[in-house]
Amino acid sequence: MDVAQALEDLLEELAAIQKAVGKLKTASVSGQELRKRIKDAHKDWLPVAGLLETGTSVDASALQDVSSAWTAMAKLANSPSPKKQYKALLKTIISKTEGEVLHKFIKASAIQTIGDSLRRLVQPISDSELLAYLDESIRCAETNCVRASVVLAWCAVAHRVHKKLASLGITTLNAEFARMKADNGLLFRAFKKDYVFSTETDIQEAADAHLILLCRFLTYLDDTQYKHLKAALDLRNGCGHPTGYVPDPVKLQAYYADVAQLVLLNAKFV
Amino acid sequence: MLDKLKADFDEIIALVNKAPASLQETAFKMILEQWFNANASPKPVPPTSTASPAAVPPTGPSGVLDAVKPFLTANAITTEVLEKVFHPTGPGAQLLASSIPGTGKATKLVSLSLLLCVRQALESGAFTCTLKELRELAVHYDCYDSANFAATLKTNKNYYKPRAKGADLELSGPGSRRAGELIKSIAAGE
């Protein structure tokens, strides 16, 4: 059964029932036809609820709330009952099914397939160190730890950037930082930090924002690529610090596509 | 290559002059782009490490799959325009738009479905979109109206090829045209 489709069908039917109840000129819902329609909708809900109960995609208490409201409405439909009670129950069922069941289910179903999508994006990578970070990141994504996934994927990016810059040699790297500091170009004029590295590991102490700016300065990235990589770093920073922002799987996939293309699979970073 | 361009230039201009005056600039850009695609020497392939030997669909120098080019040409979409909406414009393509064109959830949902079909075409050459993917992105872009999801797609069925309930969407002729218009309007910042 396609659960999302089944829930959409149910919501469509509930909206139609809600409309029909609203149109009634009587104070109670007494017509057999409408009551049967409500009972039929309840019957359609039961197998969907059963499936959702066996999974972990939807919060159990939210599901329980919706199921209780359904049971109460089916009970109302056994005999003529006040319209007011139907209206309240229909409102609860529709809003909770949409917000707390269906939307959660869709996001969770995206999580279930995110691992495959992310693995496809990084499939051509062979560097074992990068793969260790990425594997851990993807496993986080698969368990719905999206923020952790973003941070760990950035570790792979930072590793690649550090390695590339270290390959220039410490003397050259110091000189290039000094040259960038002296540059008055639009992108670089705000950069005023003095970096003097003694060993390769010192590079890890530098801010990632400055390292990727240097990559732009050294033309490993063009302006557009730099802009997208900076946005990826901003997302990483948003996820690596206590903020209220939680990216969804769609955002994570876009982030992966960007970092893979801009750095991890970019021949200029080899 | 410059010599060949010089030799072909008069013919290109003659072709452009056949287009209505208002379209000549676009026609010139497109023909020139196609000319470069056909004549530029291919970029050296970076030494990828363990890339799987899986078949990669053919792409031009711009990275756009050959299967997508007729769509771009028919809708007067240059690579420059396409790059403002999708990044990259080949496999791994992502929709760049921060919001989807449209006034209500239904219009936005349809626009999103058309853009996703183009995104899939950039990925694989097929102008299709799964309902699962559409739902996920509709939730992301806040244009998912569950009770009217099927009805909205049904109302706009001329944009898609005939399909069974629950089946994937595939762009029809009018759908391709509308997708082209959407891409141009997003790229123009409308």
Number of helical regions of chain B:
8
How many strands of chain B?
4
Strand content of chain A: under 5%
Extract low-pLDDT stretches of chain B: 41-56
Enumerate the strands of the largest sheet of chain B in spatial order, edge to edge or round the barrel: 1-2
What report would you give on this structure?
The complex is a heterodimer of chains A (270) and B (190). Chain A has 270 residues and is mostly helical. Chain A has two domains: 3-110, Up-down Bundle (Four Helix Bundle (Hemerythrin (Met), subunit A)), CATH 1.20.120; 124-269, no CATH class. Helix content of chain A is 72%, strand content 1%. Chain A has helices at 3-23, 32-54, 60-76, 83-122, 128-142, 146-166, 170-182, 208-217, 223-240, 249-264; strands at 28-29, 81-82. In chain A, helix 1 (3-23) runs antiparallel to helix 2 and helix 2 packs antiparallel against helix 3. By secondary structure, chain B is mainly α. Chain B has two domains: 1-41, no CATH class; 60-190, no CATH class. At the A-B interface, helix 1, helix 4 and helix 10 of A face strand 2, helix 6 and helix 7 of B.
